[in-house]
Each structure stands twice: as C-alpha cells, then as structure tokens.
Design brief:
By secondary structure, the chain is an alpha+beta fold. The protein is built from 5 helices and 6 strands; from the N terminus they run H-H-E-H-E-H-E-E-H-E-E. The protein has one domain: NADH Oxidase, CATH 3.40.109.10. Helix content is about 30%, strand content about 15%.
Length: about 170
Amino acid sequence: MNSIFKRTSVRNYKADKVEDEKIEQLLKAAMAAPSAANQQPWEFYVVKDKAVLEQLSGTSPYAGCTKNAPLAIVPCYRKDGLVFGEYAEIDMSICCENILLEATELGLGSVWLGIAPDAERMRAVEEVLNIPDHLEAFAILPVGYPETETKQQDRYDAKRIHYIGA
C-alpha cells in the first residue's frame, strides 16, 4: 500500500474544488474502517461553506489552515447505543487514517487536526456546526489539492523493535 509511504500532512491547498465523487470515495474509505464490535460510531459533516471553514479555523490554535481548504470533513462519534463506547475514539482514529490514506491515493492532501479529547475544542467545533448533543466532534480534516508536493520522512527506527522468540 504505497499511500502509507506517500502520505504527508498538507496544510496549503490550491483553490480547486474537490469533486463530489472524490469526497464520496473518502467517506467510503472512512466507513470501511474496522470498529469495536462493528459498532461504527461515526457520522461526518462535510463543510464546503467558506464562512464556516473560517469559523472552524478558529476552534483550535492549530486549525488555521482550515480556512484556506476547499472543504473539511469533521468526523463525529455517537455517545449512546454503542457496545463498547470506551473504544469509540479508537474507532474514529482508524476511520480518520483511512480518509488521510485515501486522500493521498486520490491526489488530494489532508491533515489531521486533533479536536478530541480536548473538551473546549470539541465544544467549539460542535457550536460552529450545530452538532446535536448525541454526537461528539472528533477531528477536523481539511481536504484539497496540495499547493506543493512534499516527500514523507523516513521514520523507520530499528532500535524501537523488540523481537521475542525465534
């Protein structure tokens, strides 16, 4: 899977719109993620409105790049009716990684802007998007065509691997 070794955090985007087919493919990739007891806790807000993107950019000290993206996906998770609610954020992490990898495959760029578990940031995003009480905002994923191409760092470190047994 080459996208694992090509994915980078993209914070600068061209003004080009992202095609609806590609947005749908990102969301399909997200929902293909495994989850505890197959609980699939996710729901997604796809934000294309420039004024709302600007508001989202102020919800975290690290979210500034959102205002220049053509869109952002805000994954949220249900609080109720989950078999293993304590694993919902792990489930969400997997679905977010799937979005980032699929974005790379589609020639798009994205970056994971952490919102959860910071209650203040979560509340700020929920207020901007008028997210209902039964959902928790998890992250902001700005998406667009990268302004420039960057190479991924080689982070492999054999010293961090410990073999047990033959």
